[in-house]
Write a structure and sequence with these properties.
Strand order of the largest sheet: 11-12-10-13-14-9-15
Number of strands: 21
Radius of gyration: 31 Å
Strand content: 15-25%
Structural class: alpha/beta
Helix content: 25-40%
Largest sheet: 7 strands, parallel
Distance between the termini: 26 Å
Length: 732
């Protein structure tokens, strides 16, 4: 069934090509329906104006205010040498703040006539500073007179909607365009089933659209918002519920471990008991593996909570049941490290087919892009013949040449670095779809997990195993207090003198070609210097504050063998300080490393800092993480760093991170720059709505998987899942 033609109508036809072009290019709005879903950012009350004192710099703002006075000045300039240059200065007020407007040249005549003292108007422009005072230069304005028919119509409501606007299209022009298309809202097809809408007391969609754009009271806005949030949450959850439903129809081989096979032998040689959390999560995974449709589970756990142990036991269970397991890591350094630690944990159980191997043993092979031909050929052979029960590798595992005897389980480490297409390619390697376990150390708030990974069931490991030490974190303001930085290097020295090691992390490598054409962001401009680089910092430290210590570098452009050699020397304690990029962010495990200094810490995201910090304090000695920054005290960047220093709780930090970044497009299209599919819903604030919508969606899909009786919902789904997103979800 097609969407209601009225809402499908291109804006070109309704508003004319020039306006439609600006809307398409700057706001991504193409149809009447798109425009109706372009909601106001906030509302101004006629009697209550924006606080002019609180205007943000460099942003495009719309304010409603009254003209206090207007003065026309003449001056001499290059263009008007005889003192004929004209400048109009208008002061506007909202009763508690004042703002200067300026108009120049020929542009002064109309505002000089219009903006008489006492006149009220909406003004829109970019806030700048001149002579240490805020001003708007050449703002667009709309008088609020209230006699002309149209203006009375438009401004009759006590609440004036302020729309997300651009320099090319002021808020009130968007408002007028919406006024034109608003009658079409009557024809909007309601995606919510009647029972759900009535049960929750939500207003119908046409009414919600009218109330969001033309509210008479604050209650109207509330009604509309709660209804439109439900739409977004519910349609998205239905899309995910249909995915889960389709996955549950796929066949898979049930994998139950033998009663006293490899897993039992492995558990017997563990020198410690599993934490309660590990036991609970393992049970969830084993229950999934025992069913005849593919497991799709997300395992999230703080850095060091023992996820690898849980994943390894799941892999051993599958090998016990006659299948093979593959573990995918995002980098070679990490794949090599997983391979090393798994072989160590398994001991003789990893020596299948070799002298001295245990009777239950299997082979554990490594497969990466940089392996020598002979080793690679042997690894491929071990996979085809089923000699190897476990393979650990990078994306090289997905190449066509790689064939498995019977792939039963895929474990993906660090989901956010691993594309959907790659998971998909690997899934095609099994005779039937293999079970899938996705691991992440980036804690994801519950509702985000429900939306981003809504097609996966979630398990959480929230206990840290015994033996992990606390990490003290401090912000080092290098610009305000240079002696703090000197002290930081002394601290690193002290750790080394006590027999420990340290990391220094920098945002870039230092051998990059700097592209002169590349546009600098405003932040870069403000800082006037490129981010600190590994090669330069390592050099300065070795000659300066860390002189006499063994300092080595590690970064992503080194040859894999060199990287591995550096990591081995560091792990063996031969290197005192490793100066690295974020290649160490994930999974690097050197329990003797206790100190980490992160240079230009403000250039990393919150969750990235948390990940990096998790590399220290992995042994019995306490960890220390120093966040070095030159950003001023009051800046948002400093607040972000203070938040990281204040808590070790990754879930708390991920909430802060999200609140600062907003959600991006939850369906994963953020990378392609598509605009967010969530306009009303805030993943953090609307936790309850999302959780309830997930339950409702599951019930609706279970009763009617094809949504045969809900044409309105199917229409809304089609609109949400345009081609690109449909594919994204398909490959989940």
């Amino acid at each position: 069934m097609d969407l209601v033609p009225a809402l499908e109508e291109p804006l070109k036809k309704v508003l004319g090509p020039p306006t439609a072009k600006v809307m398409a290019e700057h706001l991504g709005l193409h149809t009447v329906g798109d425009l109706l879903h372009h909601y106001p950012r906030r509302y101004e009350e006629r009697g209550q104006l924006t606080h002019l004192a609180d205007l943000p710099m460099d942003e495009h703002v719309t304010v409603v205010a009254q003209v206090a006075d207007a003065r026309l000045h003449t001056f001499a300039s290059a263009k008007a040498p005889r003192g004929k240059g004209q400048r109009l200065e208008v002061t506007i007020t909202d009763g508690n703040g004042r703002l200067q407007l300026v108009f120049f040249g020929a542009g002064v005549h109309k505002p000089h006539k219009d903006l008489l003292p006492g006149t009220r108007a909406m003004f829109s422009g970019k806030v700048s500073v001149f002579n240490r005072r805020l001003q708007l230069a050449h703002p667009a304005y709309e008088l609020l007179r209230g006699e002309a028919e149209e203006t009375v119509e438009t401004w009759a409501g006590a609440l004036i909607p302020i729309y997300p606007a651009t320099a090319k299209l002021e808020s009130w022009k968007i408002g007028k365009a919406i006024q034109t298309v608003l009658p079409s809202a009557q024809e909007a097809v309601d995606p919510l089933p009647d029972s759900l809408r009535d049960g929750r007391g939500l207003v119908p969609l046409p009414e919600a659209l009218l109330k969001i754009h033309r509210p008479h009271t604050k209650a109207d806005i509330e009604d509309a918002r709660s209804r439109l949030k439900w739409d977004e949450a519910f349609v998205l959850q239905v899309a995910l519920a249909r995915r889960r439903h389709a996955d549950a129809q796929l066949p898979a081989v049930a994998r139950k471990p033998k009663p006293d096979g490899l897993l039992t032998a492995f558990d017997a040689r563990l020198p410690f008991t599993l934490t309660e959390g590990q036991q609970k999560v393992s049970k969830e995974i084993f229950d999934d593996l025992a069913t005849e449709h593919p497991m799709h589970r997300l395992l999230q756990g703080e850095v060091g909570s023992g996820k690898t142990m849980v994943a390894l036991r799941a892999m051993l269970a599958v090998v016990d049941a006659g299948g093979q397991a593959a573990m995918l890591a995002p980098t070679e350094v990490l794949a090599q490290q997983h391979h090393r630690s798994i072989v160590e944990m398994m001991g003789e159980l990893a020596e299948g087919g070799m002298l001295g191997g245990s009777e239950h043993a299997t082979k554990v092979v490594l497969l990466t892009g940089s392996m020598g031909m002979a080793a690679r050929r042997q690894a491929l052979l071990d996979l085809v013949t089923a000699d190897a029960g476990i393979v650990i590798g990078t994306h090289a595992l997905i190449e066509d040449k790689v064939q498995f005897h019977d792939l039963g389980l895929v474990v993906v480490d660090e989901q956010h670095r691993f594309g959907v297409e790659q998971r998909d390619a690997l899934r095609g390697k099994g005779k039937q779809p293999p079970h899938l376990l996705v691991m992440t150390a980036t804690p994801i708030p519950r509702t985000v997990a429900m939306t981003v990974f809504g097609d996966l069931e979630t398990s959480v490991l929230d206990q840290l195993p015994a033996g992990r030490s606390p990490i003290a974190s401090h912000v080092v303001p290098a610009a305000d207090k240079p002696h703090f930085l000197a002290r930081a290097w002394e601290r690193v020295r002290e750790e080394v003198e006590n027999g420990h090691q340290g990391y220094v992390v920098c945002p870039r490598i230092g051998d990059e070609e700097v592209d002169p054409k590349k546009k600098k962001s405003a932040e870069d401009e403000a800082e006037k210097r490129p981010p600190l680089a590994v090669l330069e910092v390592a050099d300065q430290l070795a000659k300066g504050p860390l002189q006499g210590l063994r300092v080595e570098v590690l970064h992503g452009r080194m040859h894999p063998d060199d990287k591995d050699a550096v990591m081995r020397r560091f792990a063996a304690g031969e290197t005192h300080v490793l100066v690295a990029t974020t290649v160490i962010e994930v999974g690097v495990n050197v329990p003797n490393a206790t100190a980490m200094v992160i240079m230009d810490a403000d250039r990393f995201g919150v969750s990235q800092l948390h990940q990096l910090r998790g590399r220290v304090g992995r042994g019995s000695a306490a960890g220390l993480c120093l966040l070095v920054t030159e950003m001023p005290e009051a800046s948002p960047a400093r607040q972000r760093l203070n938040a990281v220093a204040a808590t070790l709780d990754g879930f708390e930090l991920s909430r802060i991170d999200l609140e600062q970044r907003r959600e991006g497009d939850v369906l994963g299209q953020a990378q392609s720059g598509a605009r967010t599919s969530l306009r009303m819903l805030a993943v953090i604030e609307d936790e309850e709505i999302i959780a309830e919508a997930r339950e409702e969606a599951a019930a609706v899909v279970a009763a009617d998987p094809e949504l045969t009786n809900l044409p309105g919902l199917r229409t809304a789904l089609d609109a949400l899942l345009d081609e690109e997103r449909e594919q994204y979800l398909e490959k989940g």
